Amino acid sequence: MQSSNTPASIFRSDENCWRVDRADKVALIVDAADYFRVLRQIILSVEHELLLIGWDFDFEIEMLPGESDDDGLAPDGFPNQLGAFLEAAVEQAPNLNVYLLKWNGAVLAAPGRWAPTVALSVLGSDRIHLALDGHHPFGACHHQKIVVADDKLAFCGGIDATADRWDTSEHLPGDPRRVCKDGSPSEPWHDATSALTGSVASALAELSRKRWHRATGDTLKRPATTATDLWPDTLDVDATDVDVAIARTEPPYDGRPLVNEIEQLCIDSIKAAKDAIYIESQYFASETVCAALEKRLRQQDGPEIVVINPESALSQLEDDAMHVLRGRIIESLRAADHQDRFRIFYPVTSKGDPIYVHAKIMITDASTLRLGSSNLNDRSMGFDTECDVAVEGPEALITGFRTRLLSEHLGVTPEVFQEALQKEKSLIKAIESLNARKGRGLRRIDPRPDGIIGGFLANTRLLDPRYRPGEETSAGQGLRPRHLAMITAGALVGGLALLAWRKWKDGGGPRG
Questions:
Q1: CATH for 378
Q2: Which pLDDT does position 181 carry in this prediction?
């Protein structure tokens, strides 16, 4: 029986979450350098089934940049490149099957990664199974970022195993390890994910196998149980025995209705907040979520709201589409902020260079933490396929994670930040008391002029669409992403054939 002093849970299955399961262990991982290192350890320990569900995979990336020997091997003795590493992991585990589900539109978004993807699928082990997920309306994307090992340990968050994601929490200016594959510098990148064991890991495996079935038509059986403890000794446990909610976004498709659990969970969390709402997101454009924030700002003595965003998007088109919307929302929130309780910042390195924020996090008070693949834009609320995890308490886990994130952004120790928070009794005042004018810190984001293109994209939400509850879409009509992918693949094959024919012709025909 619940104590009258214990606040009721905001988690409601089939409303703002899919289900609630138990996590025996929880770890919160910040930035891809730590994640990729732990991921390698897990992949080398799994015995039967490895599920990798992602927006994109780049099989040519080095998981541990700067640590390869002359043979391309990492310090653990296995290939550093992701594709070769998966091959080696399968070779040393005779019962292991690896299932990689990747958004089919990623073939168009990054056509240069198509060749290594095909090579791994066609020339690699028959126990590495690769599928392109096109089970969504035209224009939508599969955006979940889940890894599950033997139904026992799962990762769920915002980090893709793809190019330009690797960085350390120091975000060192000019770090020689943070480079693109062509050797050019890659920008500082901030991200986060979670590691979970227990029944919640099995639930995430079930969700992943359902997604595999919907994308391919193939049913994956649950792997054999194993007594092996997959939790690596190098990964600190942040909490034990915690209830975890799994929340999803799924667009209406094949007669299935819209699932917008993440949207409802965000709104419910905002409504329940008393002291502070802390957000990290790649975008800040969701109409419904930002309306809920505006409503809290209009109230007397509502919570403080702190948002961490990137300064700019990854392309001019994306900047026009998403940050014009952001600017309009900032203006609305500042107009509603009659008690100076709203801030939106972007983080910078010690040299003042912007750090790109890709993390997807919401922390309300000391009570609720949500982390996953969903951004605060309309696509993530009702168009793309997303998966988040959320916990209510323990307080030390939630406030400790918020302190850890803000300490990283401000370039101070967690102890220093916590002292400032206790002194100021305000999240905003603690941040501003530690925020240096030069070097590592947080910088104010202001709206930008719309411009012709930006105004059009913002007014139409052409690149940030969504479905509303009750709306339907047809699965069989129109040009689909998989059709575009097939066209691209056909063009690639045709181009290679034409090039080979020309070389054959120039060389005078075949030679013995």
A1: 3.30.870.10
A2: 83
User: Is pLDDT above 80 for 488?
Assistant: no
302: domain range?
A: 255-459
CB-CB neighbours of 194 under 10 Å? 25
For 297-332, give the DSSP string: HHSTT--EEEEE--SS-SSHHHIIIIIHHHHHHHHH
- The three-class DSSP label of residue 144 is coil
Backbone angles phi, psi at 368, to 5 degrees: -135, 135
- Which residues are within 8 A (CB) of 179 and not within 5 positions of it... i.e. 6 or more apart? 65, 185, 186
pLDDT band at residue 374 under the 50/70/90 scheme: very high
pTM of the model: 0.90
**Each residue of 170-225: pLDDT tens digit?**
999 999 999 998 889 999 999 999 999 999 999 999 999 999 999 999 999 999 88
Distance CA 402, CA 391 (A): 14
Q: Are residues 483 and 336 in the same domain?
A: no
Cα of first residue to Cα of last residue in the chain, in angstroms, is: 84
What is d(CA 25, CA 171) in angstroms, rounded to the nearest whole number? 28
pLDDT at 288: 98
Residue 299: CB partners within 8 Å, gap ≥ 6? Answer: none
Query: What is the b/e burial string over 382-412, where b = at least 16 CB atoms within 10 angstroms of the residue's CB?
Result: bbbbbbbbbbbbbeebbbbbbbbbbbbbbbb
Amino acid of residue 292: A
Out of 216, 241, 266, a domain closes at: 241
Query: What's the one-letter identity of residue 184?
Result: S
